[in-house]
């Protein structure tokens, strides 16, 4: 059996799911993980860790020596310039490599077609990198839209994904059993499980070179924050406490959110500004994947893959060690 080498840049939580799903799908995959330091979790059969500096020579050496055919980026950075620099180095290395001519960049946003600049802080990072991607033709690529990672509805001991703790952008606190409403709470939002995303990425690897659509959407469930809260309450049999604090007040309506953005736009390091950017993504339905494309791509690309709803994910968390 011929072997296929897949390269993954960034040894984070979503990368763990992709490694598990690649290994589960076939014994013919060799996986190389590019990272800046030791990552003990990835020490397993058919997985090799490569310490790199995320510069062109460092990355190119790994791609050529391993003859990787597909490169996935899970690199993220709070500094937009650093995000673009690292991901451009990956792209440039793929362009210069002998075999790596397929690339899935670090996108994983929402409705890239209708609202590509939402959340706004993506503009100087993902937005700038999309322009760089579009200017080249040597490497096939696709942008992935998934909405929110649904794993955050599940207790942290049952998931790879770490808590979103740096800022209050995820409105539900499972440990305190409380939440705050964003907008009316009835706006459309897409939630997709990380493992289901990884299974979709494996399907992309299996597809014929040259067949990727420019954008690929994966959807577990498109619902609303209000209905998501109802699903949680029904599953656990107890109501969540709805917060009425300053953070909740800043998210109560589109007009208020826009005012927060205007008042804090002079300071890109403002936590209130970052929170407002994510609030705007919810109330504008920018995190809701386009229903028509989701339906079409489920039929054309993802037959046989189950993208779980929030309720299905919660039920799986009761019986699985990791969802």
Automatic annotation (TrEMBL):
InterPro entries: NAD(P)-bd_dom_sf, NmrA/Isoflavone_reductase-like. One of its GO terms (molecular function) is oxidoreductase activity. Keywords: NADP, Oxidoreductase. The keyword Lipid metabolism does not apply. The keyword Oxidoreductase applies. It comes from the Eukaryota. Belongs to the NmrA-type oxidoreductase family. Isoflavone reductase subfamily. This is NmrA-like domain-containing protein. It comes from Pterulicium gracile.
